[in-house]
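step 3/5: co-fold with pyridoxal-5'-phosphate
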Amino acid sequence: MHRRTQGEDGAARRDRVVRAAVEQGLVGGTESSPPLVCLLDTDGIRASAAALTSAFAAALAPGTPVLHAFAVKAAPLVPVLRLLADAGLGCEVASPGELALARAAGVSAQRTVLDSPAKTTAELREALALGVAVNADSRQELERLDTMLSRRPAGPVGVRVNPQTGAGAIDALSTATATSKFGIALRDPGAREWLVRAFVDRPWLTRLHTHSGSQGVPLPLIAEGVRELHALAEEINEAAGRRQVDTLDIGGGLPVNFASDEENPTYAQYVAALQEAVPALFDGSYGLVTEFGRSLLAKHGLVLARVEYTKTTGGRPIALTHAGVQLATRTVYAPAAWPLRILPYDAKGTPKTGPPVAQDIAGPACFAGDLLATARELPELAAGDLIAVPDTGAYFFTAHYGYNSLPRPPVHGFTTTPEVRFTLARPAQSLSDLLTEAGATHPNALL
Ligand SMILES: *Cc1c(COP(=O)(O)O)cnc(C)c1O
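step 4/5: write tokens
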């Protein structure tokens, strides 16, 4: 049942997946079925990895070394990292936890990059010993590395630069403002000269890094940051009298369209924007590292949640569901910046139709603002219906927020050809895990 039909579009495929999730008991509108499940589209993730790889391969001079390192924070799940590794990607990590996940997924040190503005000496020592690529974020971190490196490090070491090219639409995700906390600010007085000298004085520095945008930053502005990075590399190499900087790490940040199923902008469009702003980036004189996160995973995540109750308050219908702040933290706290689509289904997983009614879609947490959408025009939801929340594969259910001791929901991967098949990628957090996290092994600690 529910086999693929010819020419099936994304929405029809999703409907088939929702129906199968209900029929296979992953989630449901009845008392005995689980109220919440998170799904990841395995084929979709592979397709995005392939689109990334081929967009850069098509533009780069043949033989140019390139590493596409997935930004682990976007979806810190070992099976996801392993799937991406199988598709040829590495990992960008920013904490000991993320490094451990990359290693658990079998990603080698040579395919791992460590970025973080607050690396401890112990973290640096581990990364250097493993041969993980390290990007120093500050002058003080460089000085710390000076004291740690008695000989050439096993892996490459670079410096993160803030090109100070300006903000995008979301302040919290704008990494290249005049005062961003990341990297060494390139346009501050004397900074450029200091950086050139820092490289000439340290022959072991071979990389430059920037992550000049993220959601909300337009492509030309991201590309401008990369152009600044390339120009700085040329200047350093000129001053050094050799090709000291051999690799440019251009970060991630391709924005994602949350308004429809369309994937826009594409990696090919981003590469075109880079080709226009900095054509020399592709001529083979530098190896490349990228660090995409959201754009690889976002479109491939789907949350399914039961409507437990409905009510009308002050004239506004409200659907009380099991999907709230625990898995859509940014949407709940910053709804204007992070709008999500809500797709209605009935208890059997069939798309729900009917005249549109403005209603609030609420989560289970005990504060008034726990809303996934307000005044959203949808067929009027009823208790036992399901909502699907697409585009949630990055920074949503993979960035759990433990409010109200709500457990981490289960995550299943799925494929759809010829029929829908699910595989468990992360079990639901058990009550005993939740208790351990809550100090239950030290109950008398405060007596
Ligand atoms: C978060 C982050 C990324 C990934 O950003 P996306 O917007 O998810 O592509 C890449 N590099 C660094 C250093 C980051 O902090």
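step 5/5: annotate
Residues 71, 73-74, 92, 115, 211, 214-215, 251-254, 291-295 surround pyridoxal-5'-phosphate (CB under 6 Å).
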